[in-house]
Amino acid sequence: MKRNLLMGDQTLFRDPDIFEIDHVPEQFNFRDTQLSELAYAIRPAMAGGRPFNSVLRGLPGTGKTTSVRVLFSEIEQTTKRVLPVYINCKNDRTRVSIFGSIFNRIFGHYPPTTGIAFRKVYNEIGNYLSDSRTVAVVCLDDVNYLMYENRLNDILYVLLRLYEEFPGARLGVIAAVSNMEIDLMTKVDSAVWSVFRPVDIYFPAYGYEEVREILSRRVRCGLYPGAMSGEVLDLITQRTVTAGDLRVGLTIIKESVANAEKAARKEVLAEDVSTSVSAKDIRLRDAIGGLSPEEKKFLAVLAEVVRDSEELPTSGALYEVLNKRLSTGPANFYKRLNKLESMEIISLTPLQGRGQTREISLRYEVEEVLKVL
Ligand SMILES: Nc1ncnc2c1ncn2[C@@H]1O[C@H](COP(=O)(O)OP(=O)(O)OP(=O)(O)O)[C@@H](O)[C@H]1O
């Protein structure tokens, strides 16, 4: 029999990209209310005015990013006077990188990484918006990743005050948050909030019928006919609804199809349906995917220390190990620790009567973290 190890002889996928998390579906249903609220906030920009700022709140996988992408693509097809800028704060976390991304959208290239002051980048953006009367709409997706070291305040402050220095410059911010425990208002200084004053747009979780319809459409586009029965789709829908995150369903479909292919079946059976995917799992992969190589090494050592300690390690004890193994130094140590906390990978609990000392725990199983790393 002819074997083809790298290119499987047969695949059930008509188009595997359809199941990627960042795929923008052709049909985006069930979010009409949110889309019209967001369109309402952006609309003044279409007439050259300052858009309303907005906050999109909803659990992961409730369509916040997709709503922004849908409207941004409509803007791009309609006018050049509005410049939509999408920023994922998991990747762009500093003032320099966020303004670098805005600069790139305007001028088609990033500012040089060395030898250029932030102020110069800022001035060029401000002058461009002011002179060209282009209105910028900046989406800060997963803005919770900026909630450490006061970065969110700093970045919102600089963005929202641009018009003061550059008369005529107009810019609106869309901030998306997927952690429902976070009340953005309490995280932003009142002086910044008084300029921000966002419209609140809530994205509720999808119900059973909605999830089934969304997944079934994906299956019709992404798999060959007959590859997945209604019963198997019901099973996957049920797991997705229980997990409360559409990304779980998309990942289960991908893995189940791969299992069926491995068993050389032409149809996914109930036994192929992967049971190991959970919303927590996806959150962990997502969070770790947003770490730099140095931060990953830091987390790996931290996880090993947690695994090998009888009690939860303190920040002091952990610092000793990390400094010895990775020459972390105190400033980087606390920066990385705070970042891992903001990404909800670890918890830092203050110890009573011990000043700045914190007790460190992982929010996931140690082995799970090490496996994903
Ligand atoms: N109404 C919908 N119709 C079709 N697909 C959808 C719908 N809502 C969400 N999806 C799909 O679910 C996945 C997750 O959606 P999206 O990234 O927009 O969620 P999110 O709320 O931004 O999540 P996060 O908070 O993690 O960023 C994407 O693949 C998206 O295409």
- CATH classification class of the largest domain: Alpha Beta
Number of helices: 16
Task: Give the full name of the CATH homologous superfamily of the largest domain.
Answer: P-loop containing nucleotide triphosphate hydrolases
Unique bound compounds: adenosine-5'-triphosphate
**Structural class of the secondary elements?**
alpha/beta
- Strand order across the biggest sheet? 2-3-4-1-5
The proportion of residues forming helix, as a percent range, comes to 40-55%
Cα-atom radius of gyration: 23 Å
Can you give the mean pLDDT? 91
CATH architecture of the largest domain: 3-Layer(aba) Sandwich
Unreliable residue runs? 1-7
* Number of separate domains: 3
Organism: Methanolacinia petrolearia (strain DSM 11571 / OCM 486 / SEBR 4847)
GO molecular function, one term: ATP binding
Keywords: ATP-binding, DNA replication, Nucleotide-binding
Family: Belongs to the CDC6/cdc18 family.
Could you walk me through the main structural features you see in this protein, from its secondary elements to its overall organization?
- The chain has 16 helices and 7 strands.
- It folds into 3 domains: 172 residues, P-loop containing nucleotide triphosphate hydrolases (Rossmann fold, 3-Layer(aba) Sandwich); 77 residues, Helicase, Ruva Protein, domain 3; 82 residues, Winged helix-like DNA-binding domain superfamily/Winged helix DNA-binding domain (Arc Repressor Mutant, subunit A).
- The strands form 2 sheets. Strands 2-3-4-1-5 form a 5-stranded parallel sheet, sandwiched between helices. Strands 6-7 form a two-stranded antiparallel sheet.
- The N terminus is likely disordered.
- Helix content is 50%, strand content 11%.
- A hairpin with a 7-residue loop joins strand 6 and strand 7.
- It has 373 residues and is an alpha/beta fold.
- The structure holds adenosine-5'-triphosphate (ATP).
- Adenosine-5'-triphosphate binds next to helix 2 and helix 11.
- It comes from Methanolacinia petrolearia (strain DSM 11571 / OCM 486 / SEBR 4847) (Methanoplanus petrolearius).
- Belongs to the CDC6/cdc18 family.
- GO terms for molecular function: ATP binding; ATP hydrolysis activity.
- InterPro entries: AAA_22 (IPR049945), Cdc6_C (IPR015163), Cdc6_lid (IPR055237), ORC1/CDC6 (IPR050311), Orc1/Cdc6_arc (IPR014277), P-loop_NTPase (IPR027417), WH_DNA-bd_sf (IPR036390).
- Keywords: ATP-binding, DNA replication, Nucleotide-binding.
